[in-house]
Write a structure and sequence with these properties.
alpha/beta; TIM Barrel; Recoverin, domain 1; binds 3-methyl-2-oxobutanoic acid; binds zinc ion
């Protein structure tokens, strides 16, 4: 069965979007969780963008020697050298260099000709290869690029040493059959000389559909993020890609090495670090993703789960009976639930959370996961500022 590699860009494309910035300590915790989850490549940041990004890439490279750590760089010497420096302690570094290839970007953004962009791409890949064997090239805005020119760029960067060629739908403009056609064509052009990768944005709500169509057309790396965070409407959601492949092996017979039972806690951990969580009806990790409310649904579900459930909550790590924890739930249940939600509390923090939980739960029917997570955040913040 063909293997599909999961390239996680939560800490780069995800982190650069509004409300998603993380501290170095948070990025390290997230990186640890992503490694446990089993991502194949961890894009840790864009080192030239800020000292913070540089330091995070450096720290992740040192702390996770077995992970394949990627750093982003534009196609220019300064960026590539900075990325290489940030990755110097990585045992398995990947330099990911990119330049836009569509005429619209060339004319208005880069103000360069196709020849100049082609030349910059070749030089950047060749330079990056001096620092890392593993070099990925991305043709930004590939889906709005002239296909003959795109072929020329793909061939040239592979000749220059790129092992992975990523063809992003940067503005989320493509539709599945069209994207599959583009990917199929480039897979044919490159053969086994390089892995073709996909990177889809969700402006039309098609990022996951486009990524899966591309995999069926021969792409073997998918770039995605936890909870689908990323520029504008976000990137393809990792958890959706993984569970679609797991659930529909009949149509998507590919091997993905992700520990799916860690998806929920990974999503919850990210929610702790950024300013928003997945919407309640978000597939796989949303609060209501496994809630059956309508009477007919509940009736069918109680008779036989498979009537309305295509994925078991356990398979993605959603805690048993996760919706409400009531006033009769003890410390143990609360501790387990906070762990399921991705928190690691000290004894004192847990005691304080328990104290507040029992007084709130006393006056209500119970507390939902999001309310528990909010309470835990309030308590851990209070401990940080010594207000407890
Ligand atoms: O969306 C995009 O094109 C990107 C590239 C830098 C890969 O994020
Ligand atoms: Zn992107």
């Amino acid at each position: 069965m063909s293997r599909v590699y999961i390239f996680d860009t939560t800490l780069r494309d995800g982190e650069q979007s509004p409300g998603c910035s993380m501290t170095k300590a948070e990025k390290l915790k997230m990186a640890s969780q992503l490694v446990e989850l089993g991502v194949d490549i961890l894009e840790a940041g864009f080192p030239i963008a800020s000292d913070g990004d540089f330091e995070s890439v450096d720290a992740i490279s040192r702390d996770f020697p077995n992970a394949k750590v990627a750093a982003l760089a534009r196609c220019c010497t300064q960026d590539i050298e900075r990325a290489a420096e940030a990755l110097q302690h990585a045992r398995r570094p990947r330099i990911h260099t990119f330049i836009a290839t569509s005429d619209i970007h060339l004319k208005y953004k880069l103000k360069r000709t196709r020849e100049q962009v082609l030349d910059a791409a070749i030089k950047a890949v060749a330079l990056a290869r001096n620092y890392a064997d593993d070099v990925e090239f991305s043709a930004e805005d590939a889906t709005r690029t002239d296909l003959e020119y795109l072929e020329q760029v793909c061939n040239a960067v592979v000749d220059a040493g790129a092992r992975t060629v990523n063809l992003p739908d940067t503005v989320g403009f493509s539709v599945p059959d069209e994207y599959a056609e583009l990917i199929g064509r480039m897979v044919k052009v490159l053969g086994d000389r390089a892995i073709v990768s996909v990177h889809c944005h969700d402006d039309l709500g098609l990022a996951v559909a486009n990524s899966l169509a591309a995999v069926r057309a021969g792409a073997r790396q998918v770039e995605c993020t936890i909870n689908g965070i990323g520029e504008r409407a976000g990137n393809a959601a990792l958890e959706e890609i993984v569970m679609a492949v797991r659930t529909r092996q009949d149509r998507l017979p590919f091997q993905i090495n992700i520990q799916s039972e860690k998806l929920y806690s990974t999503s919850q951990m990210l929610t702790q670090f950024i300013s928003f969580g997945p919407q309640p009806n978000k597939a796989i990790v949303g609060e209501n993703a496994f809630a059956h409310e309508a009477g007919i649904h509940q009736d069918g579900y109680l008779k036989e789960k498979s009537t309305y459930e295509i994925i078991s909550p356990q398979s993605v790590g959603v805690p048993e009976g996760k919706l409400v924890l009531g006033k009769h739930s003890g410390r143990h249940a609360l501790k387990n639930r906070t762990e399921d939600l991705g928190f690691q509390l000290t004894h004192e923090e847990l005691e304080e959370v328990y104290k507040r939980f029992t007084s709130v739960a006393d006056n209500k029917k119970g507390m939902r996961d999001q309310e528990i997570a909010k309470l835990v955040r309030t308590v851990t913040e209070a401990f940080k500022t010594s207000a407890v």
